[in-house]
Design goal:
single chain, about 290 residues, alpha+beta, 10-stranded mixed sheet, 4-stranded mixed sheet, about 25% helix, elongated
């Protein structure tokens, strides 16, 4: 009986301490095991990864090719000035050929304009790195960007600067084409040998802005009656503008020197340069 009274007394003293601990937010012995651990930080970081955005002029730019009218073209520099690069998880998937507005449930934006040289590196170089951004996990099935005049660098003042050499029948013509047209591209999912833009938490995924310069010059390896070649300018009309053994033209020079039809073809092709692999884009000319 005496021991029972002593134990009851001890419990009566301890109970208020336990109540005080709960009232003041102090962990009890059972709760102390639930304190935050390093694993909580890992859980907090889950759900994000790294999205790597690249620009690709394809083998046409890296290795050169022959135009539809027989000019062998190689490129020294192809500067493209990009702004407002935005990767989206579009829901529903965006179809640029159907029109309509892109509806995104998640987006990441490259904050600053960037100029890339699509011809940088050797013939087997990888597509050019544009940016790496933290992004929520998911399927980035749309990519958009603007082409705007560069603010600095060798292509300052131009959204597109194409520099290279064209050769035919023993004649070799260095050329520089400078475009200050401002364009906007909104593209759907990348189309190619592999899917891109599928980002798992804690992992990396690629997206690619692709530029098809065969649309401008045509391609001798494609049938002459293919839509690619029937719609292309070729290099011959540009070669006819050569002075002192070189072609050097901005839009004003091209407008003055080309026929009205050829200039219209050149201007009309520019919005079709942007793709995502073989996937199409909705194009808008912002200047004329």
């Amino acid at each position: 009986m005496e021991w029972t009274r002593i134990l009851r007394g001890c419990f009566s003293l301890l109970a208020p301490l336990g109540l005080w601990a709960c009232a003041h937010g102090q962990p009890t012995a059972l709760e102390s095991g639930s304190e935050p651990t390093a694993g909580a930080e890992t859980a907090q970081a889950a759900g994000k990864g790294t999205l790597i955005i690249r620009a690709n002029g394809e083998d046409f730019v890296r290795q050169g090719f022959t135009s539809k009218d027989g000019w062998a073209i190689t490129f020294d520099h192809v500067y493209v000035s990009l702004a407002d690069i935005t990767a989206s998880q579009a829901d529903p998937p965006f179809n640029p050929e159907a029109g309509g507005k892109l509806e995104a449930k998640a987006q990441v934006i490259v904050p600053d304009p960037v100029v890339v040289d699509l011809a940088a590196g050797n013939a087997t170089a990888e597509p050019i790195l544009v940016a790496e951004v933290d992004a929520p996990a998911g399927h980035f099935n749309a990519l958009s960007w603007r082409m705007v005049p560069a603010q600095a660098g060798p292509s300052q003042g131009y959204s597109l600067w194409i520099q290279g050499t064209a050769t035919k029948d023993g004649q070799s013509l260095p050329f520089t084409l400078k475009v200050d047209e401002e364009l906007a591209f909104t593209c759907g999912e990348f189309v190619g040998d592999e899917r891109k833009g599928i980002l798992d938490a804690g992992d990396m995924a690629d997206l690619e802005a692709t530029f098809h310069f065969d649309h401008l010059f045509g391609d001798a390896d494609t049938p002459a009656d293919d839509a690619l070649n029937t719609g292309a300018l070729g290099f011959g009309p540009l070669a006819a503008l050569a002075q002192n053994g070189a072609v050097n033209g901005d839009l004003a020079t091209l407008k003055a020197g080309l026929s009205e039809a050829d200039y219209a073809t050149f201007i009309g092709i520019l919005p079709s340069l942007g793709h995502v692999g073989e996937g199409h884009c909705e194009e808008v000319k912002l200047t004329s």
